[in-house]
Design a protein that fits this description.
The protein has 360 residues and is an alpha+beta fold. It has one domain: Immunoglobulin-like (Sandwich). 17% of the residues lie in helices and 24% in strands. It has 4 helices and 15 strands. The chain has a 15-stranded mixed beta sheet that branches. The longest helix is centred in the last third of the chain and has 29 residues. It is elongated. 35% of the residues are buried.
């Protein structure tokens, strides 16, 4: 167990070192985001199955986005494979997401940067900005939960280099028992950050680890060129390279988690949260790097967790028993009123004097 933790920490350090060298924005970085865009998660209980087959999403509306380079969000540099369609839903306990993005099939087992990859980002802290993934000004040597308080951002990253299409990845008993947001089987990991250079798996931190954390996400992936289901690892690479089509990603996590470390976003029915989605792809066959991703927007997108619309519009339906009860009540009231009226009339009737028979 200790060896696994050390290896994981080493990977995180290397990943952060890579991001330090590569996270350079364009000198003229600017954002012209449409801040009125909303992704709506309607109440759809018993609708979604996480299996990579997205027929169960066909009646759920989504939003299509041109995806632009995160560090240089200009339309002339947009991902040329097509737009990303983002859909959301919930069943009162779990929130579900589906991403669809066009792209030729490419898969290199064990090489995540030669395959497609996606990530979600959600605002946690009130001061957390989309730009610079939270916007804390501290560096990797000084960022802590105190120095960056209010800049917390929730992340989920899925690299499919080890993941079998149609199989479920994310939170599992092995990694959750160790109290972190890792996924040693498919690299669908649960993280948090304060800025691009201060990113950690849930449960880990710059100075101390907390074993109460866990990976709350589940997810899977698919490509339209795949011809059958039931894949196993020996079937890799699952399809021929460069076949045209679309990637599909499905995810779920609880609306509310057991987080007490300010590392997970918490969703509430009837409330709005802030989110974004990122996409990595080996354009022209070139491996991608950490900051070389595309994004659906250069600012936060609104996520609405909507209540059950039927409860808002439901009109109580009368029943025969209700009608009989109402009629009986009305009849009783009328009878009571009549009895009062008759009694009142009788009490007002003049007395007739009694005349004995012997006086006649």
């Amino acid at each position: 167990m200790l060896g696994g933790v050390c290896a994981l920490v080493t990977i995180l350090i290397l990943a952060q070192s890579t991001s330090l060298n590569s996270h350079h924005e364009a000198a003229d970085w600017s954002c012209n985001s449409k801040t009125d865009i909303h992704i709506q998660a309607h109440f759809n209980p018993g609708r979604i199955t996480l299996d990579g087959q997205v027929d169960d999403w066909k009646d759920i509306d989504g939003s299509a986005f041109s995806i632009l380079p995160a560090l240089d969000p200009h339309a002339d540099k947009a991902y040329n494979g097509g737009k990303m369609n983002v859909k959301a839903s919930h069943d009162g306990k779990e929130v579900f997401f589906m991403l669809q993005v066009d792209g030729d099939y490419t898969y290199s087992e064990g090489y995540s940067n030669k395959t497609a990859s996606v990530a979600f980002m959600f605002q946690i802290g009130e001061n957390a900005t989309y730009h610079r993934m939270g916007g804390c000004e501290e560096g990797p040597d000084t960022c802590t939960n105190k120095s960056c308080k209010g800049h917390e951002v929730d992340l989920m990253h899925f690299s499919i280099g080890k993941a079998i299409p149609g199989r479920l990845y994310g939170g599992n008993l092995v990694d959750n028992s160790e109290g972190n947001g890792g996924d040693r089987f498919g690299h669908l990991v649960d993280l948090y950050c304060w800025n691009p250079h201060c990113r950690y798996l849930d449960g880990y931190g710059p100075s101390v680890n907390d074993t109460s954390a866990q990976n709350d996400w589940k997810g899977t992936w698919w490509h339209s060129s795949l011809t059958h289901s039931g894949f196993v690892k020996d079937d890799s690479p699952y399809s021929s390279s460069n076949q045209s089509g679309a990637y599909y990603f499905e995810f779920s996590r609880p609306l509310r988690t057991m987080d007490r470390l300010q590392q997970d976003a918490q969703f509430t029915i009837g409330k709005t949260s802030k989110m974004s989605v990122a996409f990595w792809y080996p354009v022209h066959g070139k491996p991608w790097h950490g900051s070389g991703h595309f994004s659906i927007s250069c600012d936060w997108i609104q996520l609405d967790i909507l209540p059950d619309s039927s409860e808002l519009t439901k009109v109580p339906q009368g029943s025969p028993w209700d009608a009989a009860t109402a009629f009986s009540l009305l009849f009783s009231v009328v009878a009571f009123c009549i009895s009062i009226f008759v009694g009142h009339r009788v009490s007002r009737t003049k007395n007739i004097p009694f005349t004995p028979m012997n006086n006649l």
